[in-house]
Amino acid sequence: MASALTENPMESAPPPMISRLTVRNYGCVKDATVHLTPLHALIGPNDSGKSTLLRALRTVVQSASSVFDVEDPEGTQASHRPLRIVGPFDPMLAWGGEEIEVAFADGLSYSSRFSPKGVFERIGWSGGDSESGPRQPWKRGGAWAGRDGPRAVQYFEREIPARLRPARMLRLDPDALRRPSALIRQGGPVAFSDERGTGLPGVVDVLLNRDARAYLDLLDEIRRLFPSVRSIGLVNVSEGTKAVEATLVDGTRVPATGMSEGLLYYLAFAVMRHLESAPVLLVEEPENGLHPARIADVVRVLREISRDTQVVLATHSPLVVNELGPEEVSVVTRQPEEGTRVRRIVDAPNFEARARVYALGELWVSYANGDDEGPLFAENGRG
């Protein structure tokens, strides 16, 4: 098989998705590795590190295609002082020693890290990975250590940003979804304005005016799942600003302020398939605000999206887990002495026997204790 360096990028298949995420000294995560699938869920107790892993994935993907501005609020780069990393999302504090790495199935991997002195580095590897064999490093702004020299540097300069364009993270909020928004200009990116879902009216407007077939398909889907709704449209709030509005089958018009959270959440998930493409979609608790009967429909939408965009979820819902395969679920726990730990649910002892009795989400709930999930990973099932 040809190596990544010898392939013609015009003839190669679409870039592979991320197969592994390794996080060290980032937030509450001391050292953890997650093996990812195109659609993947992180489950486990509160405060175990699920959201931190999502943020770490967002940070490393962002760092591949742009530069973070580093501020030193104390006026020193001493290792005991935190550095503020200013990016396109909420800042994080770097104390030095943070390292986040993503790897692909074809042997290409990439990491961003802060040295103890606060120096930000971006490093790529090819020809192996940190678990299976030797690698040849490439350091942005530095030299290639292997025999391919400048050619390899040029490859990584092109390939890394192409694979790791900025990720999209969503923690949907009904108040943000109700909020009026400006319209999206022709040729502008079709996306929410922030991770809370602000800008939903602008996305709906794009469907209404630029893709009638997609809008009609959306209406059919909404009518099937919400039988009291006849249509979803927009109402002018001010010049250039609109809000979503629902019309019921009896003709009643319901403004965004009166729309149910369930309908708003589902509408947001339904339009996600029409947003500007991103390599990774990170979703916090997609079950929020939804009737249990609608959760399977939301996961169906996310699975459809995962054909082209990798989707990673953090969830507490066994109903979400029920819609996934065993290899698509990782259990995240955290104990003071070892920090965050990630294990695939399929690797739990006696998994096959237990899975014959329980649906996947029910298996998790039946053997979970909300702390270290010990009963799930104990041979005798009791921890």
Mind explaining what this structure looks like?
Helix 4 packs across helix 5 and helix 6 (261-272) runs parallel beside helix 7. Helix content is 28%, strand content 27%. The protein has eleven helices and 19 strands. The strands form four sheets. It has a six-stranded antiparallel sheet, covered by helices on one side. A six-stranded mixed sheet has the order 11-16-17-3-18-19, sandwiched between helices. Strands 12, 13, 14 and 15 form a four-stranded antiparallel sheet that branches. It is of the alpha+beta class and 383 residues long. It has two domains: 1-167 and 279-383, Rossmann fold; 171-277, no CATH class.
Unreliable spans are 1-12, 76-81, 127-134, 139-147
Main sheet makeup: 6 strands, antiparallel
Average pLDDT level = 82
What CATH architecture of the largest domain do you see? 3-Layer(aba) Sandwich
CATH top level label of the largest domain: Alpha Beta
Helix content estimate = 25-40%
Cα-atom radius of gyration: 23 Å
Do you know the CATH topology of the largest domain? Rossmann fold
What general outline do the C-alpha atoms trace? globular
Residue fraction in strands: 25-35%
Terminal Cα span? 45 Å
What's the SSE pattern? Answer: EEEHEEEEEEEHEHEHHEEEHEHEHEEHHH
Number of helices: 11
Task: Spell out the key features of this protein.
six-stranded antiparallel beta sheet, 11 helices, Rossmann fold, alpha+beta, disordered N terminus, about 375 residues, single chain, 2 domains, about 30% helix
